[in-house]
Amino acid sequence: LRRCTLKDRDRMEQIIEWALNPASSGDYDAEYRTIGIQDQIERWIAAKGQVYVDADGNPQRFIGTVLDITEQKQAEAEREQILQREQAAREEAERANRIKDEFLAVLSHELRSPLNPILGWTKLMQTRKLDTAKTAQALETIERNTKLQTQLIDDLLDIAKILRGKLSLKVTAVNLIPIVAAAIETLRTAATAKSITVNAVLPNISQVAGDAGRLQQIIWNLLSNAIKFTPECGQVEICLEQINHQAQITVKDTGKGINADFLPYIFESFRQEDFSTTRKYGGLGLGLAIVRQLVEAHGGTISASSPGDGLGATFTVRLPLTTAEIQPQLTGPPPLQNPDLTGLRILTVDDEPDTRELLATLLAQYRAEVTPVTSADEVLAALRSAQFDVLVSDIGMPGTDGYALIQQIRALPAQSGGQIPAIALTAYAREVDSQQAIASGYQQHLSKPIEPLVLVRAIIALVQPHSSAPTS
């Protein structure tokens, strides 16, 4: 027993004492660990045998075996570890599948929900029985829900971009005050609808190095989240301050708060505190995950805190200030207030008849001469028979897609339309799609759905010499 490890010594003493007890059968069968006298290596021993006693019950002799089973025990331990790892991996896979299934259910709900008022009001408008006020309400509802669905799709694209490591920033010196003010203004209608007071404390601080658009996306998401989870007549506060060499943005609300159990997972993708069909708040659970990735891409940090359910929440973003001289991003001329396409001959191609009709009607309202066609072959035929100022082309088309079409056009001589300015207008809206469109020969890449003024201004910019650079 002196060589037995402390872990097993008491147990082995009890086994031996019982084997020596006349009341026992004298059998013993035990496994224990020992420490080598010379090498101090721990080994497993299997001891099995019989104690023989005389007529008075006094022990006389032992007969048994002692085996070194260290390798067997090590193999068993390794198998146990493998089983535990496999079980943990299986549980994690099951959890991931459960989250995925819950997310897909929510995704279907969130994408379908805006379609219901869009389709419903559209059908009512077709009856032509709505008065002017109801027609205005219908159009406002359709526009709001279309923008909501577009935002959901943009969030999905952002997450996909982040997961692929393709997120890129256009870094300039950024003053956070106008960024915060613009986000507040964008959400003012949503706050007013719930009688929520938005208080802003925006002192002058140093600039940060970052992407102005992405920084506004961070603040917009945090403010939108605060307004969403704050009940009517509540308050949302956003404070900007400088702490040492960092800019700190704090968004605090008087909303529903965050459960302590969910707080560690608040910034994870596809995670929501409530996935049930009775949940009160919509969304895909992507906004805060995107915010965290964008903040970290700027070299900053974000944290969340909440005293508990019904006690509001506070989100704190810290971004490093910049001391380097960063050239401000050049901006183009201000957009035209009353854009006009008079005299421009525009060739449009899209295999979807609804989109063709929409483009033709939209551009005609701005006095353009529009020739809509349905395929790449018809585009090439049109270019052979007439001169056009701009091509607006879909990408996903049967037969010849938009990429192959523009490559065929660029191979034509100039007098046959080979140098026609071209815009890719497509539902393929990823960064890689934009890059492929520009590389194929388009000057601009615009994603569907498109605001009419955005398309009109893009056309005007494209035919003006100072705006010929590729854009997306």
Descriptive account of the structure:
The protein is of the alpha/beta class. It contains 12 helices and 15 strands. The strands form 4 sheets. It has a 5-stranded mixed beta sheet. A 5-stranded parallel beta sheet has the order 12-11-13-14-15, with helices on both faces.
Key descriptive features of the protein:
472 residues; alpha/beta; 5-stranded mixed β-sheet; 5-stranded parallel β-sheet; 12 helices; 15 strands
Strand order of the largest sheet: 5-7-8-10-9
Portion in helices = 40-55%
Would you identify the regions where 5 or more consecutive residues have pLDDT less than 50? 274-283, 326-332, 466-471
Q: Would you list the SSEs in sequence order as H and E?
A: HEEEHHEHHEEHEEHEEEHEHEHEHEH
Tell me the number of strands: 15
Content of β-strand: 15-25%
Describe the secondary structure blueprint for this structure:
Blueprint (H helix, E strand, L loop, with lengths): L5 H15 L6 E9 L6 E12 L5 E10 L1 H57 L5 H32 L8 E3 L1 H11 L1 H6 L3 E5 L6 E3 L1 H17 L6 E9 L2 E8 L33 H11 L3 E5 L8 E7 L24 E5 L3 H13 L3 E5 L2 H10 L4 E4 L8 H9 L11 E5 L4 H10 L3 E4 L4 H12 L9
Parallel strand pairs: 5-7, 11-12, 11-13, 13-14, 14-15
Antiparallel strand pairs: 1-2, 2-3, 4-6, 7-8, 8-10, 9-10
Summarize the structure.
The protein has helices at residues 6-20, 70-126, 132-163, 176-186, 188-193, 212-228, 287-297, 353-365, 376-385, 402-410, 431-440, 452-463, and strands spanning 27-35, 42-53, 59-68, 172-174, 197-201, 208-210, 235-243, 246-253, 301-305, 314-320, 345-349, 369-373, 390-393, 422-426, 444-447. The protein has 472 residues and is an alpha/beta fold.
